[in-house]
Amino acid sequence: MADNYDVIIIGGGPGGYVAAIRCAQLGLNTACIEKRINKQDEPALGGTCLNVGCIPSKALLDSSWKYHETESSLADHGINIKGAELDLDTMLKRKDTIVRNLTGGIAQLFKANKVTWLQGTGQLKSGKQVEFQPLDGDVQTLQAEHVILAAGSVPVDIPVAPVDQEIIVDSTGALEFDAVPKRLGVIGAGVIGLELGSVWARLGSEVVVLEAVDAFLPAVDKQIAKDAQKQFAKQGLDIRLGARVTGSEVKKDQVVVRYSDKDGENEETFDRLIVAVGRRPYTEGLLSQDAGVTLDERNYIYVDNQCRTDVPGVYAIGDLVRGPALAHKAIEEGVMVAEVIMGESTQVNYDAVPGVIYTHPELAWVGKTEEEAKDSGDAYKTGAVPFAANGRAMAAGETGGMVKFVADEKTDRILGMHVVGPQASELIQQGVIAMEFGATVEDLQLMVFGHPSLSETVHEAALATDFKAIHVAQRRRKK
């Protein structure tokens, strides 16, 4: 093993492994340090996302939705299946196989691109030295011309519900239940809480979600969030807002949760409890005292728009830095930093980073909400059209939700796009592309959209922004 590298990346998650591959593609002698040991007791790349986050949760979301469809809605299509049985063990094994295939694929990409995978932990010291502690062996000091910090994040712990990964679990433990809980509690009605709550609700759990904030998904456009909340309620998700958990107690195989709301003090008993109140940057042991890297008051690493830290030649990306904790943001930051190291002027467009919640219906958004546009004081216009007016959605039995645009009234530029409904995670990319190219609402209005397709609702929403919608009746807003 070499002691000197052009680039050392600490962290092998989406941001780290992509940065490593891109650096190697650009001809840099690159090493990536990753400490993760997977559930098969093997070293693994891919970080939280591929091992215990984005990928396994989506595998269970898809599997659980197929089970739910089989039980509740296939009969509407003339498909009658009696006696469908849930084989949870097979469902979980399928999830694990997908994870192993993807993480193993990254290891093969490292070999193909000649990235050195250092299995263990790394700590940045002064002078761009990295102290490397192998999983098996003695500590070594490595030297790099450039260092990229990509250690990711971990779930936030709360004292009122200490995680034991048996009765009270975090997002990782919620992927490994060996049986469907009869009653499941979820603390936090954010992305993770809603997605994991949805999985187990579809498989038969009675799910109660406790959210301390009074508003549902406060960062999401209010019209979209309100529509989603109604649809989740129809599905049986019991979402209680303004419910602040004050304590919990495990009693045998159950947990008693105490919380307060506008009506006073309350108690609920659950078979399992998921704590999903957010994530925090993982900086423990990452930086020596003399590393010179600045942290802010929330323990995020301070960086500029191209992810440079205060130390020349040291960068930080992904969940360690400002902005949403999204794998795709980390990936693009990894590519950007690799190219900046080579003297290129690559820049992530932080105004066009999409967000997605993979419930059913899905929620997705990019750019400004209507509330943000209003608060800016600039003149704006909106257009929203429901999927109920879309033939493809009707044929698929997926008529819930809508597409909404927010645009600058003077320039006609698209400021934001918001979707709740079928394939929202895919449809939102049309808004991302439009915003990336500086498109106007008129640009979308003049495009030809295939018929029948869900994308026609994107077209109709663009038309509706100027009261030109064809397939829905519109009333002009009062000035």
UniProtKB/TrEMBL annotation:
Subcellular location: Cytoplasm
A GO molecular-function annotation: dihydrolipoyl dehydrogenase (NADH) activity
Record GO cellular component, one term: cytoplasm
Residues at which FAD binds: K58, G122, D319
Gene3D superfamilies (alphabetical): 3.30.390.30, FAD/NAD(P)-binding domain
Keywords of the record: Cytoplasm, Disulfide bond, FAD, Flavoprotein, NAD, Nucleotide-binding, Oxidoreductase, Redox-active center
Listed transmembrane segments: none
Residue ranges of domain Pyridine nucleotide-disulphide oxidoreductase dimerisation in the record: 353-462
Catalytic reaction equation(s): N(6)-[(R)-dihydrolipoyl]-L-lysyl-[protein] + NAD(+) = N(6)-[(R)-lipoyl]-L-lysyl-[protein] + NADH + H(+)
Enzyme class: oxidoreductase
Chain residues that bind NAD(+): G188, A189, G190, V191, I192, G193, L194, E195, E211, G278
Residue span(s) of domain FAD/NAD(P)-binding: 5-334
Family matches, as InterPro entries: Class-I_Pyr_Nuc-Dis_Oxidored, FAD/NAD-bd_sf, FAD/NAD-binding_dom, FAD/NAD-linked_Rdtase_dimer_sf, Lipoamide_DH, Pyr_nuc-diS_OxRdtase, Pyr_nucl-diS_OxRdtase_dimer, Pyr_OxRdtase_I_AS
Cofactor(s), by name: FAD
Disulfides per UniProt: C49-C54
Single GO biological process annotation from the record: 2-oxoglutarate metabolic process
EC code: 1.8.1.4
Domain of life per record: Bacteria
Cofactor note: Binds 1 FAD per subunit.
Active site: H451
Keyword Cytoplasm listed: yes
Miscellaneous section: The active site is a redox-active disulfide bond.
PANTHER family reported for this sequence: DIHYDROLIPOYL DEHYDROGENASE, DISULFIDE OXIDOREDUCTASE
UniProt record similarity statement: Belongs to the class-I pyridine nucleotide-disulfide oxidoreductase family.
Protein name, as recorded: Dihydrolipoyl dehydrogenase
Originating species: Alcanivorax borkumensis (strain ATCC 700651 / DSM 11573 / NCIMB 13689 / SK2)
